[in-house]
Design goal:
Helix content is 30%, strand content 26%. It is an alpha/beta fold. A hairpin with a 2-residue loop joins strand 13 and strand 14. The structure holds nicotinamide-adenine-dinucleotide.
């Protein structure tokens, strides 16, 4: 019997989720019985696109969950409402699968773990970057001792990330929304659990993000957001994670070991 699921947040990323449900792995295993977005037209359009003619459409999560009584809540809304959405889903007895990021602070993340435990339900958070073929290839190579014991891992993130939507006005957008992808790939490749994270973030005028979002005299000049995230203390070693964002596209990891180094030119490559 198929799991019954409600989807909340019907923006850009929800298309990826609904496409995945239509794919070979999941087809027929999940029935989307409800679709919720603050903007009803957005929820309706997404439901129509995927032929969800029987799904209850709504703008209030609580009401749709009460009406549909699903097993699962798919949380693809913006990060700022994650906590309340997860709590609502758990309160309705749902297992919740959320998009990244889980939370903006460690305390908020821990609170969600406790809520899920108390409810006896699973709250899982998507980490898709580690499933990309190039990332897994590097992980295997490192794991097989290709460069000996790992001594450092560096990351570049130059992707000119102007996707529109919530990120354009969000403060600390690289740290709180996007950096988790590169960090997750790094911790997966390294096979280490970070013990602590240090981040020094700057948001210069002209980045186009957050409070630095204001006109500059060079409006056609390429904008740059630089955010070095450095010195991740890891069990059994240290590695460094440097992140920068600019308009030219380049994204990848470089690992250094006792016997050599390896570089992934674009860690999003299939
Ligand atoms: N894993 C990935 O590769 C990946 C890629 C892109 C985005 N994301 C994540 O997916 C999430 C959504 O991103 P997006 O790009 O689809 O954003 P988006 O802005 O395109 O869509 C978010 C939707 O959530 C809706 N929403 C906001 N508050 C709501 C609420 N309280 N109740 C119901 N709906 C609400 C908005 O109206 C909007 O339609 C974010 O957490 C983002 O970080 C993950």
């Amino acid at each position: 019997m198929a799991f019954r699921a409600v989807l909340v947040g019907c923006g850009a990323m929800s298309k990826g989720w609904l496409s995945a449900l239509d794919g070979d792995l999941l087809k027929g295993r999940v029935q989307v019985v409800g679709s919720v977005d603050l903007d009803r037209a957005t929820a309706e359009a997404r439901a129509a696109e995927f032929g969800l003619s029987d799904a209850v459409i709504g703008t209030g999560l609580d009401a749709v969950l009460a009406q549909t009584k699903p097993d699962l809540l798919f949380d693809v809304a913006v990060p700022s409402v994650r906590q309340s959405i997860v709590e609502t889903g758990l309160a309705h007895g749902c297992h919740v699968l959320s998009e990244k990021p889980m939370a903006a602070t460690l305390a908020a993340g821990r609170a969600l773990v406790e809520k899920a435990q108390a409810a006896g339900r699973v709250h899982a958070v998507v980490q898709n970057r580690r499933f990309i073929a190039g990332v897994r290839r590097i992980q295997r190579f490192l794991d097989e001792g290709g460069i000996g014991e790992l001594t450092a891992l560096h990351c570049d993130f130059f992707i000119g990330a102007h996707f529109g939507g919530f990120r354009e006005v969000m403060e600390n957008v690289l740290l709180l929304d996007m950096a988790i992808h590169t960090l997750d790939a790094a911790r997966f490749m390294a096979g280490k659990t970070p013990l602590a994270v240090y981040c020094h973030e700057t948001n210069p005028r002209g980045s186009g993000m957050g409070t630095a979002r204001r006109p500059t005299p060079f409006s056609s000049f390429p904008t740059t957001l630089r955010s070095p995230i450095a010195a991740l203390g890891c069990r059994g070693g240290q590695y460094e994670l440097g992140k920068r964002v600019a308009l030219h596209r380049h994204q990848g990891h470089a690992a250094l070991g006792w016997r050599g180094s390896v570089r992934g030119q674009d860690s999003r490559e299939r």
